[in-house]
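Title: Comparing notes on inverse folding

I've been comparing how different people in this forum approach sequence design from structure. To keep things fair, I'm posting one structure and asking everyone to reply with a full sequence. Here's the target:
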């Protein structure tokens, strides 16, 4: 095996379609040329450049699997490769794209009326408008059915009151997909963020995902028309199906973060000389490097197969829980181990593992904590819910 083929010993990349290879190349080039030069400053300054969204749109990576309204109609594997290449730079950028694609574009495309699709999807897919997804609340977390946000009918309108917490893109969004209790059950609403009574406050002082915008949202008697309701779904099935889409992308994205850490560590161990030889000549170092490769490669095979099942419409939520749980844990452990093996350099912002490690501390929690996914798999094994 050639040394430079350490990531793909089972030739996943060679079996991609021509379109998938082109998409991956284009996103990799964009990530290296546009995102890599700015990520350290964005992370340091708690900054996200809204102008990136039009660049994402031009690249065709927003709602990439949508087959109309300007979408690229790409495969699910291609979407996974997009997440992988973006998160290889930073989880913050991938998180922002995931929200736009899986949590805003997806529910409108899947549950919206044709009028809603025509109104919102072209601008969201092109990046001319930014979206956010309002489900999580401060008291809810892993139990979204415990949401307090509610909407009541008032003639032909709806009045929404409540709040949401930890909302990616919240303070920069033009459009919000808000989930609320109603007399009919949980419903989704497409809300213009300029609506009177809609307030978004940026959450400051994060140690993780610093290059993305995270916000809390408040709704004080905001009035929306009946045309704002997503007509195609009632109940938790709606938001949970969105989370399944996002978790699939996460399972790919974190592989990129882990690979980024290992690539840098490989270079470091080749050039770091201790006791008259390079670090990578030591058995202890090689064993740890090999173990990282084992975990990255098995995670890659898992996500690749999951993408194939998704394109065949055979993917189910428990499979996604298993992949999200396994791959994020893998990536976090690899990032932590790489940081340790870099010695004193491991805490420097000039090296990527500390930044990826801190980001992955959020990724292992959001879109379902590790425990929630373990219990989802446990329910599948036993037929009994322990939630």
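Reply #1:
Here's my take.
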């Amino acid at each position: 095996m050639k040394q430079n083929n350490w990531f793909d010993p089972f030739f996943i990349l060679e079996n991609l379609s021509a379109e998938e290879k082109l998409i991956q190349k284009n996103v990799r080039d964009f990530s290296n040329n546009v995102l890599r030069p700015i990520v350290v400053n964005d992370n340091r300054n708690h900054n996200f450049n809204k102008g990136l969204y039009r660049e994402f749109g031009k690249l065709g990576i927003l709602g990439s699997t949508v087959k109309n309204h300007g979408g690229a109609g790409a495969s699910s594997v291609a979407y996974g490769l997009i997440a992988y290449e973006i998160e290889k730079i930073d989880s913050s950028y991938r998180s922002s794209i995931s929200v736009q694609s899986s949590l805003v574009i997806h529910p409108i495309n899947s549950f919206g009326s044709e009028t809603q699709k025509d109104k919102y999807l072209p601008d969201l897919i092109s990046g001319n408008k930014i979206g956010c997804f309002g489900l999580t609340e401060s008291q809810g977390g892993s139990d979204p059915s415990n949401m307090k946000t509610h909407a009541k009918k008032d003639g032909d309108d709806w009045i929404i009151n409540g709040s949401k917490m930890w909302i990616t893109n919240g303070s920069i969004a033009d459009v919000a997909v808000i989930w609320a209790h109603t007399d009919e059950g949980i419903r989704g609403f497409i809300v213009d963020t300029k609506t009177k009574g809609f307030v978004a406050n940026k959450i400051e002082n994060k140690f993780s995902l610093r290059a993305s915008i995270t916000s809390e949202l408040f709704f004080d008697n905001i009035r929306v028309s009946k045309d704002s309701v997503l007509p195609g779904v009632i109940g938790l099935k709606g938001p949970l199906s969105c989370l399944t889409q996002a978790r699939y992308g996460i399972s790919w994205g974190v592989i990129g973060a882990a690979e980024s850490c290992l690539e840098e560590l490989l270079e470091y161990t080749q050039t770091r000389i201790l006791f008259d030889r390079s670090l990578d000549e030591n058995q202890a170092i090689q064993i740890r490097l090999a173990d990282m490769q084992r975990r990255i490669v098995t995670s890659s095979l898992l996500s690749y197969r999951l993408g194939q099942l998704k394109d065949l419409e055979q993917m189910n939520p428990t499979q996604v829980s298993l992949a999200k749980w396994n791959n994020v844990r893998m990536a976090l452990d690899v990032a932590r181990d790489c940081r340790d093996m870099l010695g004193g350099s491991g805490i420097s912002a000039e090296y990527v593992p500390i930044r990826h490690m801190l980001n992955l501390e959020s990724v292992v929690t959001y879109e379902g904590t590790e425990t929630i996914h373990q219990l989802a798999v446990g329910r599948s094994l036993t037929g009994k819910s322990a939630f």
